[in-house]
Design a protein that fits this description.
With 143 residues, the protein is α+β, with helices and mostly antiparallel strands. 22% of the residues lie in helices and 22% in strands. It has a five-stranded mixed β-barrel with strand order 1-2-3-5-4. Strand 1 and strand 2 form a beta hairpin. It is elongated, with a radius of gyration of 23 Å.
Length: 143
């Protein structure tokens, strides 16, 4: 029998708004890759990109909240500290409204939002949408 819909709604409401502050062992991480069986590779802002953590998605999020590559999650790195296994942490929250989360003081500065628009320096180098130089310009320089 499937879970009641009230569990789905409660989980969705819980992940919608950011908390006022994060506990000590909780950090925001970027999802790199789905490893399968509810395991995800994530990148922490304080670690170099070569160091990827393997975290588990708890049962309350499974088949209810979907994660995508490049999305953000809150990871509890102290959840599996006493165990001897390959897991480095557990996902405790999923960032769904990224705009609201970015306004909080605990959002890492390493996770800056990349603009899809060209900067002014890139605009000069780009020739997209411009016509090629005409032959008349070349002839005037030779005469």
């Amino acid at each position: 029998m499937p879970r009641p819909k009230r569990h789905l709604i409660a989980t969705a409401q819980e992940t919608l708004s950011p908390p006022a502050s994060l506990p000590e062992n909780h950090t925001i991480a970027k999802v790199r890759k789905a490893e399968g069986k509810n395991l995800y590779s994530v990148e922490l802002p304080s670690l170099p990109t070569e160091k990827i953590l393997l975290v588990e998605l708890p049962s309350r999020f499974r088949s209810q909240i979907w994660l995508k590559r490049g999305g953000y999650v809150v990871v509890d790195t102290g959840a599996f500290a006493g165990r001897e296994n390959k897991l480095d942490g557990e996902i405790v929250n999923v960032v769904r409204d990224e705009r609201e989360w970015r306004k909080k003081e605990y959002w890492p500065a390493e996770f800056v939002k990349k603009s899809s628009y060209l900067k002014e320096s890139d605009e000069e180098e780009s020739r997209v949408g411009q016509l090629p130089p005409s032959d008349d310009d070349e002839e005037e320089g030779c005469v």
